[in-house]
Amino acid sequence: MSLTIYFLDPADLPAIQKVRAEIFTPETAPASILIQTPGLVAPDLLVELAPIAVIPFDRFREPDVGV
């Protein structure tokens, strides 16, 4: 798993790091990238996450598309 975090204000970094540490232990923490940006997809957002995860092959199921 990897996690890209886009954020607006560098003053928010301590809060971002605190929440990340509450959710992930050092053993389970994904590779992460923090990117400061001038804007996000919605003007009222302060932080945007772009996670990437891998589903183990034995847990993969074809989606039911109702055909």
TrEMBL record:
Top-level division of the source organism's lineage: Bacteria
InterPro entries: RutC-like_sf
Protein name, per record: Uncharacterized protein
Naturally occurring in which organism (per UniProt): Flavimaribacter sediminis
